[in-house]
Structure prediction request, 240 residues.
Amino acid sequence: MAGVMAETRSIVVLTGAGISRESGLHTFRDADGIWATVKVEDVATPEAFARDPVRVQDFYNERRRGLANSGIAPNPAHRSLAEFEAAFAGDFLLVTQNIDNLHERAGSNNLIHMHGELCKARCEECGDVGEWLDDLFTDTACPACGKAAGMRPHVVWFGEMPFEMDRINEALESCDLFVSIGTSGNVYPAAGFVQAARMAGARTVELNLEPSQGATLFEEAVYGPAGAIVPGWFANLDTG
Ligand code: APR
Prediction:
């Protein structure tokens, strides 16, 4: 039962693939997850891209096409986070590990995609980042500098630095509530955010289908499908 936290002034929410599962997108490490059918080292590292760029582009093209499928839409968990953010009087930061666009489509504003975005592409020649909804190919020309062969998904691969870590760490150091939703706690630095929040004296809560790798680090937990447990949990939280 979520307590009324009248003194809650600063909230950080972390989400992972589990929050998008009921929208029809697969997670990574569940039995039917993405890593059950394709290996990280073949499609999600800079080395894989250097070795076989066509295979890597195809992997993200297929996921980008899947996301454009009309059946994929934000679910009640995404929507409840956007609604709470709009009503909350304090600071609210949503950090997602997900590269889908369901949080922004649900209306979330103060949002960081720490692992990048499937619907953006980056030019390795000039650094330009822009929205990209079509397929990317090894000879796709950059819309900014015109050079071909330098375009890649604007996604963080294993071994690369996640985005906006300074801003995320700053928020964690000053939050009084940290809520982790739909993540297995397998991948750092995201898996370490709960420790930073505890160091800041924040209340820590895990909302997940099942206990994550870091379950014992959370003071509170509610287990169940995100679409069923997240709206109710945030509905009980004082918006200040
Ligand atoms: N509701 C809530 N949680 C769910 C649901 C659901 N309907 N379905 C699955 N989950 C939970 C699983 O129990 C698991 O704990 O979501 C979590 C998904 O874990 P992962 O598949 O490991 O996904 P995630 O934690 O987001 O992975 C982190 O790893 O591969 C990289 O870059 C990738 O961002 C990803 C990162």
Summary: The chain has a mean pLDDT of 96. The beta strands are 10-15, 91-96, 111-113, 116-123, 129-131, 151-155, 177-181, 203-208, 220-223. The longest strand covers residues 116-123. The helical segments are 40-43, 46-51, 53-68, 76-87, 102-106, 165-173, 193-199, 226-235.
